[in-house]
Amino acid sequence: MMTEPAYALTLRDIRRAVESGVLTIQQSIESADKAARQAQPWLHAFSYLPDAPVVNQADIGLPLAGVPIAIKDLIDTAGMPTEYNSPAYAGRSPKTDAVLVARLRQAGGTIVGKTVTTEFAWRHPGPTVNPWNEKHTPGGSSSGSAAAVSAGIVPLAFGTQTFGSVIRPAAYCGVVGFKPTYGSIARTGVLPLAPSLDHIGMFTANVADAAYAFLIVSGFDDQDFHSSHVSGKNKSQGNDGSAVIRIGMLRRQVGTAVEPAQDSALAWLAAQLKADGAEVVVVDLPAELEDMGALVSAILAVEASVVHGALLDRSPGLISSVMTSLIIEGRGVSGVDYARARAAQVRLAHRFDHWLQQEMRLDALLVAPATGEAPVGLDYTGDASLCAPWTFLGVPAITLPIALGPAGLPLGAQLIGAAQHDERLLAVAEWVEARARWQAVKLQAKTSPDGPRNA
Amino acid sequence: MMTEPAYALTLRDIRRAVESGVLTIQQSIESADKAARQAQPWLHAFSYLPDAPVVNQADIGLPLAGVPIAIKDLIDTAGMPTEYNSPAYAGRSPKTDAVLVARLRQAGGTIVGKTVTTEFAWRHPGPTVNPWNEKHTPGGSSSGSAAAVSAGIVPLAFGTQTFGSVIRPAAYCGVVGFKPTYGSIARTGVLPLAPSLDHIGMFTANVADAAYAFLIVSGFDDQDFHSSHVSGKNKSQGNDGSAVIRIGMLRRQVGTAVEPAQDSALAWLAAQLKADGAEVVVVDLPAELEDMGALVSAILAVEASVVHGALLDRSPGLISSVMTSLIIEGRGVSGVDYARARAAQVRLAHRFDHWLQQEMRLDALLVAPATGEAPVGLDYTGDASLCAPWTFLGVPAITLPIALGPAGLPLGAQLIGAAQHDERLLAVAEWVEARARWQAVKLQAKTSPDGPRNA
Fold first, then answer.
1. With 0-12 CB in 10 A as exposed, 13-18 as middle and 19+ as buried, what is B60?
2. Where does the Amidase domain start and stop, copy by copy (chains A, B) (predicted)?
3. ipTM, interface predicted TM-score of the complex
């Protein structure tokens, strides 16, 4: 369990300290390296830490100079192994940085280590535990990145989300998780799981840090061939003209039913937002958007088979049983069913965009990021069904911690925005975060074992 | 066979006549209507002609005022039936214009009738004959549109291309066929055959008319959810900086081997272009682009099954055997193979774009539009394998007539440009057309039965 106060310094705290000369780049990185090493024996957030920190001695004026960053072991890093938590790739050490990593280094950031992923970002877990309670899963697949930020080791870590691999672990670990619009952070140099669903996302201690980092890493790369489901051609400004923030709450959550504590945490938050002047309306998703689960599963299974099928044929002993099942499932899906799912993805993304912006005029949807607290045990990384539909639609999603549940683990609130309106969603999330009083909840949890469970 | 001189008036001839008052809108449309009715008993270009012309009495300043236009019977027209040449849709009469048709009417154009398509734009033929020789196919699937322009009935007709359904009939009928970049003319209100391959294209008597019409009808529609394979984000200007037109000829054509007459017609044209200052270079496609046939077939079959499968299950007796085979073929394709083909489509489109513009610095590729002259007989609409790869890549393609073959039917030359550079391709094609001396060839063909066969 954590013995030190977490979130000692946020990303922008570090930047201010470095720019003002209070902290050197070397000190900042060494401090993160030390924290990573100290936590590693119990937290297991990292799949790789260099023998000594490899400090990026950048111009202190650069936006990430002195910022220690952790990178999911699915994302290529020159000079550090990238092994996908798979014995089939043991010893793999790419020569080139992923575009994301190159952008981070160019902005002055230092990669302190690689974080544990589930095998190929699917379900076979790694050794990472939940920093709030080591008997609980940190969630997956970006387990180590969520845990490393939650434990205060780094203020910024990157992961990927194909179903719910950023939002879910962030919620379980009590940090901010941000998955921007599909395609907005280039995936060149990142192992795909299902290219039509794969997103890069990030973990931070607060929303403003995510907004800061997003500006640095977002952008097209001509080797990453996807394009967003909803193009900028049809960008409307939604509710931007109004000063009142308008938030929708689904009468019925998509995915698995959530636990009562999660429900009441969201209701509590909604009341706070209303009290501070937001318009909070209960809404129903259009009927055609209520059952995206089968579509997203078909796309995942087929594309995972395309990506990893050859390995299964070559070396079946090197692939976990859950991954093997996924590949076999994908091989059983017909071209017709897969094509229908892909066509539905594009059609429903447009439908959702129109519904959210034109019909409902919402700034964001407020939904559960997970069914509740992180489940007990490390074998199962939790239910992604509350995230997968939004991943499927390619819309931006952010989760922020708002309360503690009955087991003393965090509960989050997920906000969903319109595609290509990432900055708008971040602005709304920052406004919501200011009303979620998470720092107070956390402090009480630390000072009193009987501190507020769910709010 | 044709008894009157075809191409009496081009689109822009009509526009000049209408704008200057030499011709009224009414006269122009009535003249086309009369020509359509006179040719119909032998040409069978139209699936529907109204009892009397429904003239769009537009402002004569509008860019298509007084222009008679024919529309393939796959494209919705309010007030006229759209039956897809399928008994399953007999009597279907849509209430709304396709976006394309609405744009044409808004620009002042008059729809004179619906032109014959093969069933669902696949291979089961309609009754249209080739205006040059009624024993020969006009090509398909946009059979009637190509024939109507070739016979001088209308100066502008629209069709669709999923494999080679604009370029091939245009070449067979001795007219210009233009299929712009995928997505550049919205398909809302057009029956799909395979949405990842479907394009709208047009037929005109010359390149300048196509360029004129393209400006009017191109543009996005938010109900047509595709986006181009190659985005504008990466638009490079290719060879635009140089005054010398640089044209590549493939050492080996894609698709079926072409007939000697087609080969020598292209060689003759290349010599003309060189003599007039173009740089003509023999090039080899990158190896990975040499076998796109299986990929495009997989996409077509699966998507056609998605679109038309339910009809086959419901009413097998109302679908032709070639269409039934296609649907059954599509149902046998696995999700994995289809997903691979879709991924390859995007990857190869980027590969081609880079090769054409960066590596080869070509303004256009000069290739055969078909294997040669239109085949004898109406049962088989001809080989689309010389068009399908470019449709698959989503790049703009234009064919223009250049010579007559041994049977006295036209041979064309197809020019391929870079995605999103439609205007550049049209400009190159106009330059090429001025050197192809087609009007002279045609005139000689008319005045002498022993006129120049292939040049």
1. middle
2. 59-426
3. 0.86
Among B333, B309, B96, B195, CA closest to A346: B195
Flag whether residue B195 sits within 8 Å of chain A, measured between CB atoms. yes
Distance (Å) from the alpha carbon of A176 to chain B's nearest alpha carbon:
31
Residue of B nearest to A333 (CA): B335
CA distance A218 to A160: 14
Q: Which residue in the set B220, B301, B302 is minimally distant from A233, CB to CB?
A: B220
Count of helix runs (H) and strand runs (E) in chain B: 13, 11
8 A C-beta contact, residue B217 and residue B186: no
Q: Tell me if A81 sits within 8 A of A93, measured CB to CB.
A: yes
Which of A231, A303, A335 lies at the smallest CB-CB distance from B334?
A: A335
Phi-psi domain of A431 (left: phi exceeds 0; alpha: psi -120 through 50; beta: other): alpha
Question: What pLDDT band is residue A279 in, cutting at 50, 70 and 90?
Answer: very high
pLDDT band for position B440 (50/70/90)?
Answer: confident
Condensed to tens digits (0 to 9), the pLDDT of residues B354-389 reads 999 999 999 999 999 999 999 999 999 999 999 999
Task: Report the gap between the CA of B216 and the closest CA in chain A (Å).
Answer: 19
CATH of region B11-244+246-252+255-288+343-447, choose from 3.20.10.10, 3.90.1150.180, 3.90.1300.10, 3.20.20.100 = 3.90.1300.10
Distance (Å) from the alpha carbon of B182 to chain A's nearest alpha carbon: 15
Q: What average pLDDT does this structure show over B201-223? A: 93
Does A92 reach chain B within 8 Å, measured CB to CB? no
What integer pLDDT is reported at residue A400 of this predicted model?
98
pLDDT of residue B448: 64
Domain boundaries, chain B: 11-244+246-252+255-288+343-447
Neighbours of A40 (CB within 10 A): 15
**A330 and B336 in contact by Cβ < 8 A?**
yes
Q: Which residue of B has its CA nearest to A196?
A: B343
| pLDDT on residue A452 | 42
User: b or e along A228-245 (b: 16 or more beta carbons within 10 Å of the residue's beta carbon)?
Assistant: bbbbeeeeeebbeeeeeb
Cα separation of B94 and B80, whole Å? 8
Nearest CA in chain A to B338: A335
pLDDT digits (tens, 9 = 90+) for B94-111: 999 999 999 999 999 999
B135 at interface of A, judged by CB pairs closer than 8 A: no
**Residues of chain B with C-beta less than 8 angstroms from the C-beta of A297:** none
Q: In this predicted model, what pLDDT tens digit does every residue of B285-320 receive, in sequence order?
A: 999 998 899 999 999 999 999 999 999 999 999 999
d(CA B115, CA B129): 12
Q: Which residue among B220, B225, B338 sits closest to A338, beta carbon to beta carbon? A: B338
A346/B contact by beta carbon, under 8 A: yes
Active site (catalytic) residues of B: 72, 141, 165
Provide the edge-to-edge strand list for the sheet that holds B410-416: B46-48, B110-115, B68-72, B156-161, B199-204, B176-179, B397-404, B410-416, B364-367, B246-250, B279-283
Q: Which of A126, A100, A184 is nearest to A381 (CA)?
A: A126
pLDDT at A454: 45
Whether chain A has a CB inside 8 Å of the CB on B286: the answer is no
Yes or no, beta carbons of A334 and B335 under 8 Å apart: yes
**Is A28 a residue whose pLDDT tops 70?**
yes
Of B227, B330, B347, the CB nearest to A231: B227
pLDDT at B239 over 70: no
Residue A59 in this model has a pLDDT that exceeds 60: yes
Residues of A annotated as catalytic (active site), given as ranges: 72, 141, 165
pLDDT in tens, B154-164: 999 999 999 99
CB–CB of B335 and A340 under 8 A? no
